[in-house]
Amino acid sequence: MKKGYLANGLFGLGDRLVNELVAKEIRASLPGVDLYVPQENAAINDKMAYADSLLIASADIEALKESDFLVAVIDGVEIDSGVAAEIGAFSMLDRPIYALYTDTRQQGRENTKKIEALIADGTENQFMYRNLFVIGLIKQNGVIVSSIEELGRALRN
């Protein structure tokens, strides 16, 4: 049975809803998968209870070590710091990483006006920046997809 890990922020409603959608797609694409979703781990994420940093790190590192693949959501103004750390830790295992990056500013890359504006004035950046170290870690053993449906296809392949 395949084991996977879903990395994303989990404190805001938007992130929790995205996690539910992504987890549903992963489970549909890989029937029987044992998927670790940190927000589903009440032992460390029930905010009415107490879990210290060592317990959280231990639980998540153990789940990463046991996983055959990582799905990381890299949306947001910046990649969530916890997600970046999970990508870094998981990359050391040389196992597949599937990054989901849905930002609509990826569209229109062939529009020469956008490129010309960027060349003329660096503040006219029509595109999002992702940390290149983190992107490199993903690309070493994985792929970046731009939709939940594309993620499902990548996982099935």
From TrEMBL:
Signal peptide: none annotated. InterPro entries: 2'-dNMP_N-hydrolase, Nucleoside_deoxyribTrfase. It comes from the Bacteria. This is Nucleoside 2-deoxyribosyltransferase. It comes from Psychrobacillus faecigallinarum.
